[in-house]
């Protein structure tokens, strides 16, 4: 006997009930099943009926003289906006697996229907009057056009008064017509074909029933366009956020704005200002409607969907990370030259490539030749040469004014440190300077001799060869006097006397109030931390750098969202932030001589330090600066970006012998670290009792990541090694996005001192992580634990994990206590869309993904 599915079994029974409504049945279970099936069928076809009705209303309106004033392609066809102010989504009809009518206009001009495609009946109103499609009565289309519905019993009904009254659709014998007793001649639209010729300004509609074709002229010069609002799924706003958009209009004589409650929307001089509510709305996604009127009294409604995020949302806004908030790429050499930058070639000052002699003095002389640069005498660094360590010295080259200079290294290898120059750092304290090579595979900057530890008790204490930095620290400007939600842009302060638009400031807190500290590590209790933990003794420390865009009525408005909620009772401050801007390093390779056999926090066989021997460059207190198209070979550390804001480090490769760390955001705000390929080679760091094995793709011990009070960092499209993990080096980093990265997920590689944990505080977002290798600590019971209260080191506040895939991993739900280990886990085992959260948030904010980021994929 042939098997039948439930639909095949139920359909004849349901249809018989529809045709013979008085038939009884003793089997209540069968009746219930039939009723449930009917309910599901009606619901399933509701959208299909709506599309059919929309096509009828649209066609009726066009026949009545309304003119298309806007045509927008959509997935199912077109959105047609008409001059009367209504809009309809229409498409070509699709076949329907139900008893749908075929609808047409008869020779007499009446709306008519047929279920077999040949015999037509006129639609009539309750009084029996036919519905003429060409009636000139001054009445809306909805009140003279047939609109269909399937009732709860599965019968067709019609209304011709906008839904006030309904009558059953009947056949020639005046019997009701069931919707699910076969397949009718009709489809989901009045039309079989829809063509919009934008060049000709013409909309062509072909009727399904008789293949009749009608053309309608389209008005294309009546519009209002909000630039930058083309993002998918609407515009996202944080509480109290205000954003401005340029507006382009044509033939608009009047604009009326309908905004949701709490939203402030104004349009003046082609500038649209949208300000979000200060508190959470009940409905988070709402429309802002712009009703525009033309000189001919046509109307259109332009809708912007806006979404309000509050401080309970799980995904912070990372879209402001990077150089110039990620909106543009740093300028290339030709553009800088056009701006007046001078190019200085180090070879003109005595540098000779490939001669195996130091080029340090030539480099120093080239910098010193810049107008306004002063070379200071070399001085001994403070707190060096302790515990038997070596002293270190710094040679400082400084300018009070922007130098507007490119220091150029032609193709070849150049030595910036030999054995006679150990522990002698070069510090450049200036802005508008770029150090540039002829290409990452052409120009090599070598550090041929390792630096020595300045404190023998600290394996990482060796100095860096080259620093670009501002020496001055933070100082108080004002107290914070009002609260501010996470994601907001505005803060109330005690005075604004010395704060101006364009200034960079630091939103700062350091407070050991137990309630304040408890917020930072929640939901875990303070008792889980050692009494010597810095966050308990010194307090929670928040460092958030911002540029001021407005100063008014005792309030500052920032260009970027605040990444942690602010409560004035915890003594928040606004601090002066001295810094340099427009510093770049690009198109070269930094090469050290890190030895094989890396061991964490251990000495090398020759008495050096695996952690710190070869650190070639650091950046400190810089804004809108960059490092790109740079390689690192056999280095202890690639680069640290310290106390900086909106720095971009991307298109970087790390190879050679394995070292301590890669590229990190250290105490910085909104650093972008992207497209780093870290494949240095070395021995896998074994667990107790295991043998070390050589790995060609081990990677730096700590992959790219964050340390100290970093905030808003984006680690994007980074590939680290197979014996590593992202870095979260404790000392209170917050709000980090690990975005579409690839590499191992090995515990203990995040890093951090036992008294500086947690490794990471709130808002760690791991998005579409592709794991190449995973691992667990021996006491974790074959699961990955974020917060191990039995360990002095492994402590991360519950993260959000979305789309984790690749090598299998089991994230613990709880461990030792009942406190949850994860804030949220979604789609584990398979990647999600959007593939990149940073890209998606940029698209939402800007309406597009910037070309520089697209080029990196």
From TrEMBL:
Residues 699-856 form the DUF4955 domain. InterPro entries: DUF4955, DUF4988, Pectin_lyas_fold, Pectin_lyase_fold/virulence, RHGA/B-epi-like_pectate_lyase. SUPFAM superfamilies: Pectin lyase-like (SSF51126). Residues 36-209 form the DUF4988 domain. Residues 344-449 form the Rhamnogalacturonase A/B/Epimerase-like pectate lyase domain. Keywords: Signal. Pfam families: DUF4955, DUF4988, Pect-lyase_RHGA_epim. Residues 1-26 form the signal peptide. It comes from the Bacteria. This is DUF4955 domain-containing protein. It comes from Bacteroides clarus.
């Amino acid at each position: 006997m042939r098997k039948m599915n439930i639909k095949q079994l139920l359909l004849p029974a349901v249809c018989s009930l529809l045709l013979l409504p008085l038939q009884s049945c003793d089997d209540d279970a069968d009746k219930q099943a039939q009723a449930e099936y009917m309910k599901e069928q009606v619901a399933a076809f509701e959208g299909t009926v709506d599309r059919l009705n929309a096509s009828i209303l649209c066609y009726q309106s066009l026949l009545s003289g309304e003119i298309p004033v806007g045509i927008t392609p959509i997935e199912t066809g077109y959105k047609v906006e008409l001059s009367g102010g209504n809009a309809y989504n229409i498409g070509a009809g699709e076949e329907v697996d139900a008893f749908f009518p075929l609808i047409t206009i008869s020779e007499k001009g009446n709306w008519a229907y047929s279920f077999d495609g040949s015999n037509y009946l006129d639609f009539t109103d309750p009084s029996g009057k036919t519905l003429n499609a060409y009636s000139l009565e001054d009445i809306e289309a909805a009140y003279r056009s047939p609109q269909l519905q399937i009732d709860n019993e599965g019968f067709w009904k019609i209304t011709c008064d906008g839904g006030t009254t309904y009558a059953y659709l009947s056949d020639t014998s005046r019997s009701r017509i069931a919707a699910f007793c076969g397949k009718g001649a009709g489809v989901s639209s009045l039309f079989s074909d829809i063509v919009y010729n934008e060049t000709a300004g013409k909309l062509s509609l072909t009727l399904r029933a008789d293949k009749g074709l009608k053309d309608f002229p389209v008005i294309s010069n009546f519009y209002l366009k909000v630039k930058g609002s083309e993002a998918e799924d609407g515009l996202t706003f944080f509480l109290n956020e205000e954003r401005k958009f340029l507006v382009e209009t044509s033939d608009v004589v009047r604009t009326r704005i309908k905004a949701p409650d709490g939203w402030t929307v104004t349009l003046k001089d082609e500038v649209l200002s949208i300000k979000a509510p200060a508190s959470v709305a009940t409905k988070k996604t709402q429309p802002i409607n712009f009703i525009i009127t033309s000189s001919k009294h046509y109307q259109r409604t332009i809708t912007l969907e806006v979404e309000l995020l509050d401080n309970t949302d799980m995904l912070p806004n990372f879209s402001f990370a990077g150089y110039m908030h990620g909106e543009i790429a740093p300028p290339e050499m030709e553009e800088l030259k056009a701006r007046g930058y001078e190019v200085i070639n180090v070879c003109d000052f005595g540098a000779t490539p490939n001669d195996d002699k130091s080029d340090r003095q030539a480099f120093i002389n080239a910098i010193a030749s810049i107008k306004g640069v002063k070379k200071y005498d070399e001085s001994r660094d403070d707190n060096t040469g302790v515990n038997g360590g070596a002293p270190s010295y710094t040679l400082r080259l400084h300018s009070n004014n922007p130098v507007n200079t490119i220091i150029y290294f032609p193709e070849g290898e150049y030595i910036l440190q030999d054995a006679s120059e150990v522990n002698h750092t070069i510090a450049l304290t200036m802005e508008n300077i770029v150090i540039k090579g002829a290409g990452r595979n052409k120009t090599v900057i070598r550090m041929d001799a390792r630096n020595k530890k300045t404190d023998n008790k600290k394996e990482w204490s060796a100095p860096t060869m080259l620093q670009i930095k501002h020496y001055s620290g933070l100082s108080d400007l004002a107290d914070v006097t009002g609260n501010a939600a996470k994601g907001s842009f505005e803060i109330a302060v005690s005075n604004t006397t010395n704060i101006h638009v364009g200034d960079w400031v630091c939103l700062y807190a350091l407070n050991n109030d137990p309630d304040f500290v408890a917020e930072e590590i929640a939901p875990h209790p303070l008792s889980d931390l050692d009494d010597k933990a810095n966050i308990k003794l010194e307090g929670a420390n928040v460092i958030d750098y911002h540029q001021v865009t407005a100063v008014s009525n005792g309030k500052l408005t920032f260009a970027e969202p605040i990444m942690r909620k602010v409560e004035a009772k915890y003594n928040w401050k606004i601090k002066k932030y001295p810094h340099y801007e427009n510093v770049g390093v690009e198109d070269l390779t930094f090469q050290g001589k890190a030895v094989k056999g890396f061991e964490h926090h251990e000495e090398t066989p020759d008495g050096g330090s695996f952690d710190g021997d070869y650190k070639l460059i650091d950046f400190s207190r810089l804004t809108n600066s960059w490092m790109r198209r740079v390689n690192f070979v056999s280095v202890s550390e690639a680069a640290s970006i310290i106390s900086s804001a909106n720095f971009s480090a991307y298109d970087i490769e790390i190879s050679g012998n394995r070292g301590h760390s890669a590229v990190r955001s250290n105490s910085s705000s909104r650093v972008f670290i992207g497209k780093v390929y870290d494949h240095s080679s070395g021995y896998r760091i074994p667990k107790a009792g295991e043998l070390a094995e050589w790995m060609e793709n081990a990677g730096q011990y700590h992959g790219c990541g964050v340390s100290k009070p970093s905030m808003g960092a984006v680690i994007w499209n980074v590939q680290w090694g197979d014996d590593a993990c992202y870095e979260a080096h404790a000392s209170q980093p917050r709000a980090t996005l690990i975005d579409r990265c690839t590499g191992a997920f090995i515990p203990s590689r995040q890093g951090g001192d036992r008294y500086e944990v947690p490794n990471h505080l709130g808002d760690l977002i791991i998005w579409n992580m592709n794991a190449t290798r995973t691992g667990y600590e021996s006491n974790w019971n074959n699961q990955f634990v974020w917060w191990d209260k039995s360990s002095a080191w492994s402590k991360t506040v519950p993260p959000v994990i979305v789309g984790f895939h690749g090598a299998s991993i089991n994230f613990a739900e709880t461990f030792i206590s009942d406190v949850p280990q994860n804030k949220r886990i979604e789609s584990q085992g398979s990647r999600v869309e959007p593939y990149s959260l940073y890209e998606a948030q940029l698209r939402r904010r800007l309406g597009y993904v910037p070309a520089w980021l697209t080029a990196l994929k």
